[in-house]
Amino acid sequence: MFEITLEESFSAAHALRGYQGKCERVHGHNYRVRVSLQAEQLDPAGLVMDFVDVRALLRDLLEPFDHRLLNDVPPFDTLNPTAENMARHFFVGLSRRISAQGPRVRVAEVRVWETEAATAAYRE
């Protein structure tokens, strides 16, 4: 199994609903998002997927959230904007974009950093 990993970042604010503590108030993070893709076979050029293409897909996925209040942006206008929910949302969104290009490559994991020391990951 081959695997590639790529990271992007974005800045956003959020407020956690149903949370008892200071994070229930609006506050911001410089989020880091790491995606790992897997393939059993490489393409004819010897790649799982071109990093340029992965970066473009990931940037397109993250762009609606950059410098926004996540609580105002679907799906987080109704779904609590936790790092766990973001990791799953980005996993599903990237999986749809990747699968549209064929079945050879799959998303293995999406990990979201809220801080340097706090991460959440989603994988299926």
List the helices and strands and how they pair.
Blueprint: E1 2-14, E2 27-39, H1 51-62, H2 83-99, E3 105-115, E4 118-122
Helix pairs in contact: 1-2
Q: How many E-type strands?
A: 4
Label the overall shape: elongated
Question: Do you know the CATH architecture?
Answer: 2-Layer Sandwich
How does the helix and strand content classify structurally?
alpha+beta
Mean pLDDT: 96
Q: What is the CATH C-level name? A: Alpha Beta
Biggest sheet: strands side by side, in what order? Answer: 1-2-3-4
Determine the fraction of residues in helical runs and give it as a percent range: 10-25%
Unreliable spans are none
Name of the CATH homologous superfamily:
6-pyruvoyl tetrahydropterin synthase/QueD
Question: In summary, what is this structure?
Answer:
The protein is an alpha+beta fold and 124 residues long. The protein is built from two helices and four strands, in the order E-E-H-H-E-E. Helix 1 (51-62) packs across helix 2.
